[in-house]
Amino acid sequence: MTDRRTALITGATGGLGAAVAARLGELGHRVVLAGRDADAAAAIAKDLAERTGATTDWIGLDVTDPASVDAARDAVGAVDILVNSAGVLVDPGQNAKTIPMELVEQSLTVNTIGTWRVSQAFLPGMLERRWGRIVNISSGTASFTHGLFGGAPAYSLSKVALNALTVMLAESTKDSGVLVNAVNPGRVRTRMQPTAQRSPEEAAEGIVWAATLPDDGPTGSFLRGDHEIMGW
Q1: Which residues are annotated as catalytic?
Q2: Rounded to whole angstroms, how far apart are CA atoms 55 and 142?
Q3: Which CATH superfamily groups domain 6-224?
Q4: Which of 39, 43, 167, 193 is the most exposed place for a label (fewest CB within 10 A)?
């Protein structure tokens, strides 16, 4: 590997975030695992370093708390790769007619605004260095092309908004050396979907691909886990 980068992964105490961190570490990047549970992030970082020899750090980070995000930015320093993996699914089985608005607010606060807040915190450094990769973990439930999923309306809405954010950030950073994309990892076996068939390690491959794109790679795109561009 010729370019060793620093990668920050939010939601890294979950299965998918931890798998992404592990794969980036195996590729030789310094990885910083971030999560609301700092002790869990520290334990995963230690295990990853022992298993792979990767350079790992950890930090407590609550994407809903501006002070927490600012403190993480100041503590971590320069970040080249940002993987926004923190997310919640709080409304399975709900429908748009009757869902409590507090569930909608919670979903948007974490899945959309939290991603926006963290991206704003680390984008200035990427722009200054004229290199960066931002990967937002989206979902097939948010695709108008394939049909929005109404069985978790707040989650789907938050991911639609996340996709829109991806496009706007990509447009605002065009020709800057920063690439911003959303990835649909598919149905992954995590706390959100414990019965899903796809393992976090399998899903991590597509996310890491987006996080390490060459300079002429796509930006403002909705990418599938198999490296293909899918319709919004």
Answers
A1: 155
A2: 35
A3: NAD(P)-binding Rossmann-like Domain (3.40.50.720)
A4: 39
229 CB burial (10 A radius; 0-12, 13-18, 19+):
exposed
The pTM is what?
A: 0.94
The Cα–Cα gap between 6 and 122 comes to 12
The amino acid occupying position 178 is: V
Q: Is 53 left (phi over 0), alpha (psi -120 to 50) or beta?
A: left
The pairing of strands 81-84 and 30-35 is: unpaired
Strands (E), the chain: 6-9, 30-35, 56-60, 81-84, 132-137, 178-184, 222-224
Residues 80-116: tens digit of each pLDDT: 999 999 999 999 999 999 999 999 999 999 999 999 9
Domain ranges of the chain: 6-224
The per-residue DSSP string of 187-214 comes to: SB-SSS-TT-SB-HHHHHHHHHHHHT--
